[in-house]
């Protein structure tokens, strides 16, 4: 199973048969995995907007008629 440091990715592939898309939302200033690690909430918000756009791009035109 693959998945790097996030083993659940490989498990999700095994169970669902689908690939995953992982989006990094950290910047160098966040000091990822450092004792003073942080997370910029504005970057998190941008990440949610990107995720929304990706999901909306997968909706077929017939799906939008029910909205």
What can you tell me about this protein's structure?
This protein is mostly helical and 67 residues long. The protein has a domain at 21-64. The protein is 45% helix and 0% strand. It contains 3 helices and no strands. The radius of gyration is 16 Å and the shape is flat. The model has no long low-confidence stretch (mean pLDDT 83).
Q: Which regions are unreliable across 5 or more consecutive residues at pLDDT < 50?
A: none
Distance between the termini: 39 Å
Q: What shape does the CA trace take?
A: flat
Topology order in helix (H) and strand (E) letters: HHH
Q: Biggest β-sheet: count, sense, barrel?
A: none
Number of DSSP strand runs: 0
| Number of helices, where a helix is a run of at least 4 consecutive DSSP H or I residues | 3
| Helical amount | 40-55%
| Class inferred from helices and paired strands | mainly alpha
Strand content: under 5%
The radius of gyration computed from the alpha-carbon positions, rounded to a whole number of angstroms, is: 16 Å
Averaged pLDDT, please? 83
Write the layout of secondary structure elements.
Layout: H1 8-16, H2 41-57, H3 61-64
How would you summarize this macromolecular structure in one to three sentences?
This protein has 67 residues and is an all-alpha fold. It has 3 helices and no strands.
